[in-house]
Amino acid sequence: MLCLIQRVTQASVTVDDAVVGQIGPGLLALVGVEPGDDEAMLPRMADRLLGYRVFADDAGKMNRSLRDTGGGLLLVSQFTLAADTRSGMRPSFTSAAPPAEAERLFNRLVAICAEKHAAGVETGRFGAHMVVSLINDGPVTFLLRP
């Protein structure tokens, strides 16, 4: 499982001209599920998403997490994140989990994060063509693995 996190001042997801998820200050996480990913890794990834220290403390150091700030979390499924781009000029998606399995694990990750994050969790729509808008704060972007 891959989560590309971006610290944002705001982010939203639109499907068919309707906003389906949006947050103010917090994290946008693009989530790619890979073959072999399983339920056991989900609590660890949720803890990493909520506990990764990317927000500034009073001294301006990245020492605060989403848990500390109470910011928003917007989770967006993105199978292209798991693409194999090592050769050729076209991505291969054999390194992405099958859609049904990816959707199950993504939805479970959303549920775990929602249980652990009182500020709530917003999402895009799995499998839909989504327009993701964000204002990256920093820019601050990290690739997390469980």
Automatic annotation (TrEMBL):
Pfam families from the UniProt entry: Tyr_Deacylase (PF02580)
GO molecular function: D-tyrosyl-tRNA(Tyr) deacylase activity; Gly-tRNA(Ala) deacylase activity; Ser(Gly)-tRNA(Ala) hydrolase activity; tRNA binding
Alphabetized CDD domains for the sequence: Dtyr_deacylase (cd00563)
Cellular localisation: Cytoplasm
Organism: Stenotrophomonas terrae
Role summary: An aminoacyl-tRNA editing enzyme that deacylates mischarged D-aminoacyl-tRNAs. Also deacylates mischarged glycyl-tRNA(Ala), protecting cells against glycine mischarging by AlaRS. Acts via tRNA-based rather than protein-based catalysis; rejects L-amino acids rather than detecting D-amino acids in the active site. By recycling D-aminoacyl-tRNA to D-amino acids and free tRNA molecules, this enzyme counteracts the toxicity associated with the formation of D-aminoacyl-tRNA entities in vivo and helps enforce protein L-homochirality.
Catalytic activity: glycyl-tRNA(Ala) + H2O = tRNA(Ala) + glycine + H(+); a D-aminoacyl-tRNA + H2O = a tRNA + a D-alpha-amino acid + H(+)
Biological process according to GO: D-amino acid catabolic process
UniProt-listed InterPro entries: Daa-tRNA_deacyls_DTD, DTD-like_sf
Subunit structure: Homodimer.
GO cellular component: cytoplasm
Entry note about domains: A Gly-cisPro motif from one monomer fits into the active site of the other monomer to allow specific chiral rejection of L-amino acids.
Enzyme class (EC, first level): hydrolase
Descriptive protein name: D-aminoacyl-tRNA deacylase
Protein EC: 3.1.1.96, 3.1.1.-
Motif stretch (Gly-cisPro motif, important for rejection of L-amino acids): 138-139
Keywords of the record: Cytoplasm, Hydrolase, RNA-binding, tRNA-binding
Family designation: Belongs to the DTD family.
